[in-house]
Amino acid sequence: MKAIVLILLAAIVVSLGSGLFFLTKDEQDSHRVLKALKVRVALSVVLILFLVVSFYFGWIGPETA
């Protein structure tokens, strides 16, 4: 579980970095910034859905120590 969450978080950060790179280096009419934003939003939605489904099925839960 932790590995999947960490991989998704790393992919979100990479997408954020690529969007920043495209924003600063590409010409004005480039669509790569928009594509990076779409990827980042999609990855964030997948991460949230994964966490909700994992909680629903009991794969993860609140720590009761």
Shape annotation: elongated
Order of helices and strands: HH
- Please give the share of residues in helix: over 70%
Low-confidence segments: none
How many domain regions? 1
Amino- and carboxy-terminal Cα gap: 20 Å
- Proportion of beta-strand residues: under 5%
Query: What is the average per-residue confidence, as pLDDT, rounded to a whole number?
Result: 91
Structural class assignment: mainly alpha
Could you outline the blueprint of secondary structure elements for this entry?
Blueprint: H1 2-25, H2 32-56
Observed structural traits:
single chain, 65 residues, mainly alpha, 75% helix, 0% strand, elongated
Describe the structure.
Helices cover 75% and strands 0% of the residues. The protein has 65 residues and is mainly alpha-helical. The protein has one domain. Helix 1 (2-25) packs antiparallel against helix 2 (32-56). The longest helix is centred in the last third of the chain and has 25 residues, at 32-56. It is elongated. The mean pLDDT is 91.
Please outline what is shown here.
This protein is mostly helical and 65 residues long. The protein is built from two helices and no strands.
